[in-house]
Amino acid sequence: MTSDEILAGLYDETLVGNGPAVLELTHEALAQGMLPGTLLFDALIPALEEVGARFERGDFFVPEMLIAGRAMAGAMEVLRPLLADTGVETIGKFLMGTVKGDVHDIGKNLVNIMLEGAGFEVVDLGVQVAPERFVAAIEEHRPDIVGFSAFLTTTMPMFKANLNALEKAGLRDSVIVMVGGAPVTQEYADAVGADGYAADASATVKRAKALLEQRRAKVPA
Fold first, then answer.
1. Continuous segment of H or E residues that includes residue 136
2. Which of 42, 56, 142, 208 has the most CB atoms within 10 Å of its CB?
3. Which SUPFAM superfamilies does the protein's record reference (predicted)?
């Protein structure tokens, strides 16, 4: 296969969520000496962006997003260390976790894949993350953005508890705070004092990029 055929195949197979084919094409591309960054920026990311666009139009639903995300995640397992070795720059660091009391992670995991595919370095704390763990992780990893995920209305109040913990630790102004999850709304995000909200994985990437650009524009060179 030519490099163009491999890139076209990677795009198409990622779009339909064919994980084994994506992995096979990734290995074939690398064996031919193609650069990891080329696979990421010329095939994988465009495919995931198209998945997001189709989701927004109502042509794709959550299952289609999940299988496409998983297909890309398989390729990323191979490419991640190679990308680090070739010095491909990340656009920012995103710390993510599902709040204390909540064990749901499918949505969070999909967001992580989309963020990573878009060029973010993602640190995932998992589920049932207490406020003090978020604080410790922010101090350790120094992320640009922290994301709080909640799937239950009963765990949404943890957003405010987490924000209060950041305030108390003197970290609130050092990090952008995004919130999301099935029951969360823009109004709720505003009420608890979050910097950003997104309704789905595709929107999260766009919002994260926009918030990061806004923050960096305000920082004197």
1. helix 131-141
2. 208
3. Cobalamin (vitamin B12)-binding domain (SSF52242), Methionine synthase domain (SSF47644)
